[in-house]
Structure formats: structure tokens, C-alpha cells
């Protein structure tokens, strides 16, 4: 059964934001601290006829690995991400997504993720996220999502 964490990502997120008409259509759900999801790319995401743009795959990875921050209950930002493109990313196919945290070292969160088309590995990624206080995002002057209130409150002291 899928658990539904109280927190959600930015509704305007370019990857998964339901309020963003230009979103990439990333859908995720959570099983414990693991993230699962799917995405269906189309002509808008083309890099070559019938194939997804590598930048679209990298953006999906950034969003996918970042989603692990929700069940980890640690707000954070991507410091570095490496994407290995392993197989064809065909448009019009439902790609499955999975991500998890491999290691926590103080504020450093080592994330991993995979995108598959059926049994075929399309891409895998490793990223370093840095745990930040929610106040990190206040400088923009934009209101933060309500569900971010108290996010990481306990982890700040971990
Ligand atoms: C649900 C949410 C989903 C989110 C998905 C989307 C995620 C995103 O796209 S976030 C947007 C892209 N990323 C950003 O905007 C981040 C911009 N960068 C920053 O704000 C800062 O550089 C930040 C916060 C990462 C680090 O700054 P700061 O808090 O001062 O930490 P700092 O002291 O420099 O580094 C902390 C540790 O991380 C390490 N570190 C920081 N950056 C890197 C890096 N690029 N590579 C390797 N190590 C790094 C440092 O060496 C240090 O290690 P140690 O503790 O061992 O000395």
C-alpha cells in the first residue's frame, strides 16, 4: 500500500507541479523512505525523433531524487548530480521511476535513482543533496507551500 506523506513538493515544480501547465508530468508515491513514480514524455520533450531530450531526463532525475527529502523529513537542495544515460528513452512510453537515500553524512544526503522502460535501464543517477533550513527559500519573497511548515524541524538537530 502507498503511504501519503503530509508534505508535497512545490505545486509549480517544473517536474511534478500540478499547478504548472508546463510540468514534465512526474508522478510519485512513497513506500517508506523510498520513492516510486512514473512519467510519460511526448513530442514536447524531444531530443531526436522519437527520443527524449537528455536534459528532460536529467530534470526528471533531479526532481525524483529530491522527492526523497519528503519521507526523509529533511528539506534540502541539489549540490551536484550525475546522470548516466544507459538506454533509449523513447517518447510515448510510461517510464518507471525509483529513488532512495543511500547514505546520510551530517548535512550531506547521498541520493540514488533509476529510470526504467520495463526491464530496460534508461538512466541512473547519483546526487549529493545538502540539508538546509526551510528559511533557505525565503529570500525569493514568494510564499512557501503551507505543507512545508515545520519541515525538518526534528532533523535540524539530528
Ligand atoms: C521535494 C523537493 C524536491 C526538490 C527537487 C529539486 C531540487 C533542486 O533542483 S534544488 C535547486 C538547485 N540547487 C541549488 O539551488 C543549490 C544552490 N547551492 C546552495 O544553495 C549552496 O551551495 C548549498 C546549500 C548547496 C551549500 O551551501 P552551504 O549551506 O553554505 O554548505 P557548505 O558549507 O558549502 O557545504 C556543506 C557540505 O557540503 C559539501 N558540498 C557543498 N556543495 C558541494 C558540491 N557541489 N559538491 C560536493 N560537496 C559539496 C561541502 O564540501 C561541505 O562538506 P563538509 O561538511 O564535509 O565540509
Describe the structure.
This is Acyl-coenzyme A thioesterase THEM4. This protein has two helices and eight strands. The strands form two sheets. A six-stranded antiparallel sheet has the order 1-2-6-7-8-5. It is globular, with a radius of gyration of 15 Å. With 158 residues, it is mostly beta strands. The chain starts with 26 loop residues before the first strand and ends in a 27-residue tail after the last strand. The protein binds octanoyl-coenzyme A. Residues 9, 62-63, 66-67, 69-70, 77-80, 106-108, 128, 130, 132 line the site of octanoyl-coenzyme A.
Q: Using the coordinates above, name the CATH class.
A: Alpha Beta
| Uncertain runs | none
Annotated CATH topology: Thiol Ester Dehydrase, Chain A
- At the fourth level of CATH, the homologous superfamily is Hotdog Thioesterase
Q: How far apart are the termini?
A: 29 Å
Keywords: Apoptosis, Cell membrane, Cell projection, Cytoplasm, Fatty acid metabolism, Hydrolase, Lipid metabolism, Membrane, Transit peptide
EC number: 3.1.2.2
Membrane topology: Peripheral membrane protein
GO molecular function: hydrolase activity
List the helices and strands and how they pair.
Blueprint: E1 27-31, E2 34-40, E3 46-48, E4 51-52, H1 54-66, H2 69-72, E5 76-85, E6 94-105, E7 108-117, E8 120-131
Antiparallel strand pairs: 1-2, 2-6, 3-4, 5-8, 6-7, 7-8
The structure holds octanoyl-coenzyme A.
Octanoyl-coenzyme A is lined by residues 9, 62-63, 66-67, 69-70, 77-80, 106-108, 128, 130, 132.
Amino acid at each position: 500500500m502507498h503511504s501519503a506523506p503530509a508534505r508535497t513538493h512545490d505545486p509549480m515544480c517544473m517536474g511534478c507541479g500540478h499547478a504548472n501547465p508546463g510540468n514534465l508530468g512526474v508522478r510519485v508515491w512513497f513506500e517508506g523512505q523510498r520513492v516510486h513514480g512514473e512519467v510519460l514524455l511526448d513530442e514536447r520533450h524531444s531530443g531526436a525523433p522519437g527520443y527524449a531530450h537528455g536534459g528532460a531526463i536529467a530534470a526528471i532525475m533531479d526532481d525524483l531524487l529530491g522527492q526523497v527529502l519528503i519521507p526523509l523529513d529533511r528539506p534540502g537542495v541539489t549540490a551536484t548530480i550525475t546522470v548516466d544515460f544507459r538506454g533509449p528513452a523513447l517518447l510515448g512510453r510510461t517510464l518507471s521511476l525509483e529513488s532512495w537515500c543511500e547514505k546520510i553524512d551530517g548535512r550531506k544526503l547521498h541520493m540514488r535513482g533509476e529510470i526504467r522502460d520495463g526491464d530496460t535501464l534508461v538512466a541512473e543517477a547519483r546526487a549529493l543533496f545538502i540539508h538546509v533550513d526551510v528559511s533557505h527559500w525565503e529570500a525569493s519573497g514568494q510564499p512557501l507551500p503551507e505543507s512545508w511548515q515545520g519541515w525538518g524541524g526534528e532533523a535540524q538537530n539530528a
